[in-house]
Design brief:
Elements lengths: L1 E5 L8 H14 L4 E6 L4 H5 L8 H6 L5 H4 L2 E3 L2 E4 L12 H17 L1 E6 L6 H9 L2 E6 L3 H19 L2 H6 L5 E9 L4 H12 L4 E6 L2 H6 L6 H4 L4 H25 L1
Parallel strand pairs: 1-5, 1-6, 2-4, 2-5, 6-7, 7-8
Antiparallel strand pairs: 3-4
The structure holds adenosine-5'-diphosphate (ADP) and magnesium ion (MG).
The site of magnesium ion has 4 residues, from α1.
């Protein structure tokens, strides 16, 4: 299957909202994803109505249990492995980075796993996830301050990984990027300006998710916006992202088979 990592160099860009809306939209399309909360702040876990009082995410990375045994709740029928503040205490040495990334790749052999990450790219768990990723979903808004830090930081980190002989030998390191424009408002002049700039930089937007109150409200409902407001334009935007992702996964399968 595949490892999908939602990440950005910039905080507060709708990573968590995107992670579980994408999971719910994939579930609607008969996929069976798992959600893994690798944010020590555990907002995804809290949105599911759980208190992050175990060490599930860390246990998963360290091989002390399976996706099934460590999932503690579901959001929209998607099993969730809760986040833990203990991720902050990780040593973050090279051995750990490799071991965690190898563990994530092993899980993704047979399962579809969607990972929500913490703010920024500095946390060891975030780096391990990006090192192992098949798909990197980068949510962003059409604002200069967001765009400057969102995807360029992720690309810079991947270049660092690729420049490392040992990492290149152990990991495929060729993730596909899915850029999602969220809180989108096509009527803003700034939006058009920033979209033109992105296009010139070669960034293709995989899906547009409009700004909408349903997204903010859904956080309090224990559901993703896809099931909280199924007919909303926000939900439709995430369904479009899920379809694009499935098409990309099918294309990869064909590549591997040929
Ligand atoms: N499409 C949207 N329209 C309006 N607000 C949104 C939308 N998507 C997410 N939000 C709100 O934006 C804020 C940040 O989202 P969140 O997913 O927590 O970001 P991150 O995980 O990157 O910190 C939250 O208050 C969320 O409810
Ligand atoms: Mg978050």
């Amino acid at each position: 299957m595949a490892l999908i990592v939602v990440a950005s160099g910039k905080g507060g860009v709708t990573k968590t909202t995107t992670a579980y809306a994408l999971a719910a939209a994939l579930r609607e399309l008969e996929e069976a994803p798992f959600l893994l909360d690798l944010d020590p702040g555990a907002s995804l876990t809290e949105n599911a109505g759980l208190i992050a009082d175990g060490t599930h995410a860390l246990d998963l990375l360290e091989g002390r249990g399976s996706l099934e045994s460590l999932s503690a709740a579901t959001i929209d029928d998607v099993p969730l492995i809760p986040g833990t503040a203990d991720l902050l205490a990780a040593a973050g040495d090279r051995g750990q980075l490799i071991a965690w990334a190898e563990r994530l790749r092993a899980l993704a052999e047979t399962q579809l796993l969607i990972i929500d990450t913490a703010q920024g790219l500095g946390l060891p768990a975030t780096r391990a996830a990006l090192l192992a990723a098949d798909y990197i979903v980068v949510p962003m808004q059409a604002e200069p301050a967001v765009i400057k830090r969102s995807y360029p930081d992720v690309l810079a980190l991947l270049r660092l990984f690729r420049a490392d002989d040992e990492l290149r030998a152990r990991f495929p390191l060729n993730p596909s990027f899915l850029f999602v424009l969220t809180k989108h408002n096509s009527r803003l002049g700034l939006t058009r300006h920033e979209l033109d700039k992105l296009a010139r930089e070669g960034v293709q937007i995989a899906a547009y998710v409009p700004s909408g109150v349903a997204a903010a409200e859904s956080c309090l409902s224990g559901k993703s916006v896809v099931t909280y407001a199924p007919r909303s334009p926000v939900a439709q935007g995430y369904r479009a992202l899920a379809r694009t992702l499935i098409a990309a996964m099918n294309a990869r399968k064909l590549e591997v088979a040929s």
